[in-house]
Amino acid sequence: MTSGELLHRMPPTQDGARDPFKVQDLALDGRAIGERGSRTRSRILTSTATILEAVGINDLRVVDIARSVGCSPATFYQYFRDSSDAVLALAEQVGEETIPLGAEMRVDWRGPDGVAAARRMVDGFVRYWDAHRAVLRTRNLAAQEGDQRFREVRNRALRPLTEGLALMISESPGEGSKELTPYAAAAALVAMLERMAEFHSDLEGYGASRDDVVTTTALIIHSTVTR
């Protein structure tokens, strides 16, 4: 499911759980936007995600987003400063989806289900990238070009994985783990994971299927954590 489809179909949470797709309660000028304004803002984000997947950030225009929603550009500017501001909001929202992957790091990776847990984590991360590729690539490019807003959003999205792996490495009883600086090792593993998730389809020309990429990446991460 793409970013646009997910924004449109995301069900409400129950029992007060935090909804990662909950919109802001205020417009840019500080006014409460209300239920109708929340729906408009959500439709703008859905449209932004859909158009971004089709044309990329360089051709993402406010007028096109507004037209697809059926509102005026002036309405768009009630909620976002520009198109990149809307993409930033999308990046913040999809970033929350990495949190459930942390459940796989609560499994004993030195036990019989360790490799399977590592593989589930990697597979989930690859599926996350496949669903939100346009938003995530735009986020990473902006972060690499020095936009601190996108850098902070990226760091927040990856922090649960990095900190979880760092903790596992620091607590590993293996002799090999003593040679590693836990956070540096975890950051390196997450960087590899993100890179493989982003470009796994490029490896098909070299005979590596998606399943091959997931399994190989999981084994590398597992062996590092449990060495």
UniProtKB/TrEMBL annotation:
SUPFAM superfamilies: Homeodomain-like (SSF46689), Tetracyclin repressor-like, C-terminal domain (SSF48498)
A molecular function GO annotation: DNA-binding transcription factor activity
Entries under Pfam families matching the protein: TetR_C_38
Domain HTH tetR-type residues, every copy: 38-98
Ranges in a coiled coil: none
Keywords noted in UniProt: DNA-binding, Transcription, Transcription regulation
Protein name, UniProt field: Unannotated protein
